Amino acid sequence: MASIRRQTDCFEPTTCMRIYYLLSAALSACIDLSERQIVGPYYIAQDPEGSYKTLYYRLSDGLDAERVRNVYKVGYTADFIFVESKSGTYYINRTQDRPTDVGDPAVQQAIRGPLTPNDFRSFLDSIGEASFTFQYSAI
Question: What is the reported pTM?
């Protein structure tokens, strides 16, 4: 007696898993799943030169300008981006930052740090953000 296969029998769990892995690989090649938008043009992504995250400023031409390497935490207010990194804590004045690389003197003026923990707390107090907490952690 001939057996009749149901159409659903063609898709065994192993076949479905293979299809899932192939689709996942194809999609992840097109989309960087490790990129995290922070606010405005600022985002965190895996640094192509190291095994750490970097804060970038996305430029209008699709290029990215590095701001701070080896990021642990990031937070922001209306006027500032705050970054805790391996080398210390930084702040970026968003109103002074420009869509260019860090070689631009205006960008250099917008980025301050590394600050000591005491200097960072004093700065937060001076701008009325004493209760600030970081919104993103890369750790």
Answer: 0.74
